[in-house]
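>> received
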Amino acid sequence: MQRIPVYVHATDPISWTGVTGQLTGRTEVRVLAQADAADAAVTLVVVDSLTPPVVQALRRLRREQNRLVLVPATIDDAQLSAAVECGVVGVVRRSEASAGRLVEVILSAARGEGSVPADLLGRLLNQMRRLQREVLDPRGLSLGGLSSREVDVLRLVADGFETREIAVKLSYSERTVKNVVHGMTTRLHLRNRAHAVAYALRHDLI
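>> returned
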């Protein structure tokens, strides 16, 4: 298997040492020096929280790098939305950043897939539902461009269910659930489910 080139960007040397130490020796990835950062397929951004300077750094890295994975000590709903807006495709809380978990999310990002903790994604989607109920429904507006099947799937994602569980609850195959999500993100030219929600919120589609 070809090793994924990874660059670690951290706001302090201790965080950088900790994350690179987790990845060193893993056969799935190859940690790059700063001089080779432009060759990275995935960039890990290790921070305490999503402060305005960090947001600026994410935007700059997005212009320079391909795929971003955020490793924060803490992150709330608003910060998750901002991170997705900046092009982040994966999030791993620092407390959950084992070597195995980091590699799993890096591999997902390299494949063009997103990975966000279920509770964070669920709260983001619940925010979407509140806006629909409190802002759009009174105006007679509907979910912009989303089919009833897509809405059903998103609601279960918001409740923290995985693909297999969603398939059982809706009496779909797992392939159908994946196709529903893929069709929605492809149609809107988005990277993943979290980005689809953030995009829709930004453009007042939901």
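>> The chain has a mean pLDDT of 81.
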